[in-house]
Amino acid sequence: MNKALFLDRDGTILKEIEGTGGETLGYLTSVAQVELIDGAADAIAIARKSGYKIIIITNQSAIARGWLTEEELLKINRKMYDLLLNANTDAVIDDLFYSPFHKDGIIEKYKANHSSRKPDIGMVLEAKKKYNLDLRSSYMIGDAYTDIVCGINAGTKNILVETGYGKIAYKKCLDENLKIDFIASNLLEAVKYIEKLD
Questions:
Q1: Residues 163-182: tens digit of each pLDDT
Q2: 8 an active-site residue?
């Protein structure tokens, strides 16, 4: 069986969008906003060399909310792939799964509580089946409370990064006594921690 790093996208690989108010606050909705967090490409390259599949799993409720189309999302993701490879030619993403759903959406076909949406594990299970993954030897890495809960639900080891919403998420995880295996300042520190354990 294979092992994977399940990576959140926004706040873990890409910088979160600050926004200036309004309904798109905090949502990455255009290619022009795509910016890598320092060290993210090197982190991915190191993890791949250590034998991990690199799989992004990301909630994209902006699609359900009508702020982003799936076509626009694909362009954003392509820009991310290009930036990663430009920064480090070994920073290859094996796959990306996204959940466009949200119960408060305005786009009817995406207006739902869906099992793919983190903290549910639908995207993890899809990746597990596709890549023959051993979840117990895999890691969930993200900056959000939902990433940690998703990892716990899936049975992975879990790392919270302090980029993005990580510091807010850490407090919520503490309040709920959730098990976090490591807290890293960013994705690169997270991968270096994993590298030491391997």
A1: 988 988 999 999 999 999 99
A2: yes
Question: Cβ(140)–Cβ(9) under 8 Å?
Answer: no
Using left for φ > 0, alpha for ψ between -120 and 50, and beta otherwise, residue 159 falls in beta
Residue boundaries of the structural domains of the chain = 3-197
Q: Would residue 10 show up in a list of annotated catalytic residues for this protein?
A: yes
CB 67 within 8 A of CB 23: yes
- The side-by-side arrangement of strands in the sheet containing 157-161 is 95-99, 52-59, 3-7, 139-142, 157-161, 182-184
Q: Give the tens place of pLDDT for each residue, 21-57.
A: 554 457 899 999 999 999 999 999 999 999 999 999 9
Can you identify the CATH homologous superfamily of domain 3-197? HAD superfamily/HAD-like (3.40.50.1000)
Q: In the numeric block, which tokens belong to residue 141?
A: 């890495």
Report DSSP state, residue 36: B
| Dihedral sign from CA coordinates of 61, 66, 71, 77 | negative
Apex CA 143: angle with CA 138 and CA 145, to 5°? 90
Q: 10, 42, 120, 147: which is the annotated catalytic residue?
A: 10
Radius of gyration of the chain (CA): 16
